[in-house]
């Protein structure tokens, strides 16, 4: 696993996102209303909508194209739709507030 610095926790407003690019891979990093940070691939499995542009509600994001509801905890698309979005582990340094994304070398090379 590679640990990639992606910024400071204060750079993302609550219920908003930012996009991180690693090679050709786009990752949407969200701050939930409870301050928890979640990261998923910035691509809806339905029609490749940019999830970073979606509305965040509780621990879900709604795709801006067709309103698919995706759970930010596990990447699963909610019924009646189906699918899954790859998720990524985010580490926050408690002392500094710096955020780090954990991503496999294989995933980086595949992008």
Outline type: globular
Give the CATH topology. Answer: Rieske Iron-sulfur Protein
What CATH architecture do you see? 3-layer Sandwich
User: In percent, how much strand structure appears in the residues?
Assistant: 35-45%
Domain Rieske: 4-99
InterPro entries: Rieske-like_NirD, Rieske_2Fe-2S, Rieske_2Fe-2S_sf
GO molecular function: 2 iron, 2 sulfur cluster binding; metal ion binding; monooxygenase activity; nitrite reductase [NAD(P)H] activity; oxidoreductase activity, acting on paired donors, with incorporation or reduction of molecular oxygen
Protein name: Nitrite reductase
What do these coordinates show?
The structure is a single chain. The chain is mainly beta. 5% of the residues lie in helices and 42% in strands. The longest helix is centred in the C-terminal third of the chain and has 6 residues, at 105-110.
SSE inventory with pairings:
Blueprint: E1 2-8, E2 16-22, E3 25-31, E4 37-41, E5 55-57, E6 60-62, E7 69-71, E8 87-92, E9 98-103, H1 105-110
Antiparallel strand pairs: 1-9, 2-3, 3-4, 4-8, 5-6, 6-7, 8-9
Describe the structure in brief.
Keywords: 2Fe-2S, Iron, Iron-sulfur, Metal-binding, Nitrate assimilation, Oxidoreductase. By secondary structure, the chain is mainly β.
């Amino acid at each position: 696993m590679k640990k990639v610095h992606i910024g400071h926790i204060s750079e993302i407003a609550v219920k908003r996102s930012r996009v991180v690019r690693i090679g050709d891979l786009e990752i949407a990093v969200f701050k939930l209303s409870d301050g928890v940070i979640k990261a998923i691939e910035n691509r809806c499995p339905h029609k490749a909508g940019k999830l970073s542009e979606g509305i965040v509600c509780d621990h879900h994001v709604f795709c801006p194209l067709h309103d698919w509801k995706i759970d930010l905890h596990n990447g699963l698309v909610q019924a009646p739709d189906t699918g899954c979005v790859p998720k990524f582990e985010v580490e926050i340094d408690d002392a500094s507030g710096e955020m780090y994304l954990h991503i496999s070398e294989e995933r980086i090379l595949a992008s």
